[in-house]
Amino acid sequence: MEGHMLFAWMLMCLLLRPSTAQNSPPEGVLNCCEGDILFLVDSSGSVSSYEHSRMLAFLSELISPFSLGEDQVRVGLLQVGTKPRLEFGFDKYSTQSGLQAALKTIKPLRGDTNTVEALKMVKEWVLRPGKAGGARENLPRVLVWLTDGVKPGDVTGPMAQLRDDGVAMLVVSTGHGNYQVLRQVVSPPVEDHLHFVDIDDMSIITKEFRDAIIEIIRAERIHVRDVSTSSATLQWRPVLSGLTGHYEILFKELRRGVGGVETSRPDVFTGGPPYQRLTQTADSSTARLTGLKPDTNYIAILRPESNEQAFNDLHVTFRTRPEVLSPAVVTVSEPGQSSVRVSWGPLQPGMVESYSVEYSALPTGKVHYVQLSRSQNSTLLRNLQPDTTYLVTVTARHASGKEKAMSVKVCTQEVTPALADLQLTTVGSDSVEVEWNGGTSHLRGYWLTWEGQQSSAPGQRSSLYLPPDSLSTRLTHLPPSARVCVSPIYRTARGEGLCCTAQFHSDALVYGYQS
User: Fold this and answer.
1) Is residue 5 scored above 60 in pLDDT?
2) Hey, which CATH number is domain 28-217, 1.20.210.10, 2.60.120.10, 3.40.50.410, 1.10.1200.10?
3) For the ranges 144-158, 266-280, 384-398, 468-482, which has the lowest average pLDDT?
4) Which residue of 75, 128, 476, 515 is surrounded by the most CB atoms within 10 Å?
5) How far is residue 77's CA from residue 91's CA, in Å, rounded to a whole number?
6) Topology of domain 222-319, per CATH?
7) What is the pTM of this model?
8) CA 229 to each of CA 138, 263, 290, 291, 395: distance values in angstroms, whole numbers, following the listed order
């Protein structure tokens, strides 16, 4: 007897234990999709509290498998009443736990079924790409309308505008009226996007309706990034995550079609070189393609393989970057009067055998040569003439037999001798005669500055430019202890100058500085 009771107790425990299989999300859905889904829920006075709760329970089950986030699925909910209200927008919840908790706290609005005003909010704000808090650019947008079908208003026009704007329209009606109206507003195919169901039987359509949404927002895209001359990276959404299987990747040169026109259709790739193949695990989302030819068009095909679910092949075309041969850039630094540094890149010791640098003064100077190893990417050119333009050419001799050269003009700095002599002679109580010795023939002039060290405005400075043939000038109305400076001006720079301080008293008539 005790044995029978123990068996009955164990059987009851097994029957009453919660089924984890029923609560687990459908396999293959979690990482499948990317898009914005807005639920338009009728919560007017014609919908009872019980019906409203059943609608929210349906939504909870419908969206529970999806991964939420900025790069996946985002969900918003707008309730319809006399004054429609956005309960939460797309940027509110990025986790299922937060979203599911929010659905349990939503209360009906009551009042009239003002669906037209709600659709106006949808069009102008919630599902408008680029609007603050609105839908994302270049991603699927889905509007799911849950209604009891009672007096929805004149919704045909507003919903047609949304449909024309690229929004996918789906409807679930718990009533059985207004079929013709609802049939007009949904996106084709009608049989997948319009469902009439009793309020207590909504769970019957959950999987079928979810599959219809998945078909709209399935992220069946493959991207190419990090393209170089000989490699590229494929990136895709891991649709096999959680499933058993693998990815097969095929890639080859993009052949020419009829008449020499390039084609990207994978079904016409019957000629040319064979496909190269890679295999990646089910949890992979990237693959690196190597051994590619530079400046060449390629096609790549991603084939998810799984016995649990069928997936479409994805394909993409891309072009590798042109081959970059050194030198691709030549730069100049550290310019001096008799030297300048020349650098180049990229450094390619595996491809280059040696470098040579030749340079000559323009227009007809003697040509000089410098031979450098393949591991060097700069050299300092010495013994150059000051204030002279040179043509410098860097040539790389590649192991393939090719040579590539790049030229650049460089200029050495001019010689800017300092001022050799400066004298001040007082003339009266507030004037001085300023005299100096001239410099070289390529002078452009002189720059005089003076300021009063004891003036009422400390630091006040005056300046004067004089032509190159001037060797003296008179300054008047100077403040006591005025400091006078003279600097030579050359074509590219100002030379080092000299300064003297004016002293206005009877026993100091001539003073100055001699270098």
Assistant:
1) no
2) 3.40.50.410
3) 266-280
4) 75
5) 11
6) Immunoglobulin-like (2.60.40)
7) 0.48
8) 30, 21, 10, 9, 22
* pLDDT (average), residues 174-200: 87
Sheet with 85-88: strands ordered across: 85-88, 73-80, 35-42, 141-147, 167-173, 194-196
Which amino acid is located at 96 in the chain? Q
Q: With H, G, I as helix, E, B as strand and everything else as coil, classify residue 320.
A: coil
Of 255-264, 406-415, 486-495, 497-506, least confident by mean pLDDT is 255-264
Round to whole Å and give the CA distance between 16 and 265.
55
Q: Are 103 and 112 in contact (CB under 8 A)?
A: no
Candidate CATH numbers 2.60.40.10, 3.40.50.10610, 2.30.38.10, 3.40.830.10; the one for domain 421-514: 2.60.40.10
pLDDT at 111: 87
- φ/ψ region of 28 (left if φ > 0, alpha if ψ in -120 to 50, else beta) reads left
Phi, psi of 111 (to 5 degrees): 85, -155
227: Cβ–Cβ under 8 A, 6 or more apart, which residues? 233, 318, 319, 320, 321
For residue 277, what are the contacts with CB-CB under 8 A and spacing of at least 6?
Answer: 248, 249, 250
Residue 288 is which amino acid?
A: R
DSSP 134: S
pLDDT tops 80 at residue 446: yes
**Residue 449 host element (H or E):** strand 445-452
- Per CATH, 28-217 and 421-514 having the same topology is answered no
Residue 175 has pLDDT above 80, yes or no: yes
Higher-confidence residue of 429 and 358: namely: 358
How high is the pLDDT of residue 400? 81
The C-alpha atoms of residue 379 and residue 371 are separated, in whole angstroms, by 10
Q: Look up residue 245 and give its two tokens.
A: 């299987």
Average pLDDT (310-326) is: 84
Q: Where are the domains of the chain?
A: 28-217, 222-319, 329-411, 421-514
* 3-state SS record for 244-283: CCEEEEEEEECCECHHHCECCCHHHCCCCCCCEEEEEECC
- Residues linked to residue 442 through DSSP beta bridges, in sequence order: none
CATH of domain 329-411: 2.60.40.10
User: Could you tell me what percent of the chain has a pLDDT over 70?
Assistant: 86
